[in-house]
# Entry
Amino acid sequence: MDSRNASSSGNSPAPLLKWLGPERSSCKLQSLAAKIRRTLGSYMAMGNQSLYMIGKVLGHKSPNSTQIYSHFTSDPLRQAMEKAHEDMKQAAKAVELRMQDKLAAGWA
# Structure
């Protein structure tokens, strides 16, 4: 075992680097970092953050770089579904309140 890569317990201190391999670790880490950044930008857009804010967080110098996230920000199907869901919750609550009023009045 190479003493440079062993800890006092005998385990490798960097299993990630062992998995990556010395000749490809830099390339794989850069690829992983890019995937994490894209995921962060996507989740921010899905969370209705502005493209300006996404660009600032990701360090984009040009708004054109941030435009790739625009397809997540204004999804009319998602907005319609969320509105319908809220309407359904309100209707259910109104029915529940009416039923409670009837039970309290002794209508059952």
Confidence is low (pLDDT under 50) at residues 1-16. Residues 1-74 form one domain. The two ends are 79 Å apart (CA to CA). The first helix runs from residue 15 to 20.
